Amino acid sequence: MRAMTRSSDHLLLASIHDVSPRFESELDALVDLLRAHVGDRIAMLVVPNHWGDAPILPGSSFASRVRNWSDSGCEIFLHGFFHRDETRHTNALDRLRGRFMTAGEGEFLGLSRNAASARIMEGRSLIEDVIGRPIDGFVAPAWLYGNGAREALAECHIPIAEDHTHVWSPASGRELAWGPVITWASRTRVRLASSLAAAAALRRAPLKVLRVGVHPPDIRHPALVRSIRKTLSAATRSRHPARYADLAA
Ligand SMILES: [Zn+2]
User: 16 C-alpha vs ligand 1 centroid, how far in Å?
Assistant: First the structure.
């Protein structure tokens, strides 16, 4: 049988969420797992102070690891600030989405434009101090954005952002890619099983850009690790591992 040819315009984007000193050992294992398939084409989604008690301190050993990942070619995205939703949602639907879909982690769902801008600017300046270069973009925790957050991203000229179904440039207003992101969940058995089924179905989807996002707890579940490996090896047979910045080029 002939090997499948890689179509040059079919891309794979891989990301690691919740990059925080809280998950130091899980992150090492995830980086090793992804590197075997995509090299340094990894987007690291960094949380400046996960849940308010895991700050990334400039000069700390974790800060130098983030810098090393950046120096080795990984993209660095700001991923919220606290990763926790502490706002009171006035809208009933947002309240439900915030509480039940994300276990209260939709930090950027209920923020006003001003509050979202302030948090983005503070997080960006901290991370840019650490890596010594501009961040590549922003991804909201749980991929949840309120209107205030979307406006703030444009106001802050963030080059790239993504949600569950889209990648876009807040700075230019351009849509950069479309398609569901493959991700895994382990909070309950039902979610775990359905994420395995979704990954198996989506990894061969004929999308121009296939996105794969992993989280630190994934590494604790052998079935998820097998599914991540299978997904990456199936995807790299017909796709080029790429950077998010390649979409905007
Ligand atoms: Zn996250």
Answer: 9
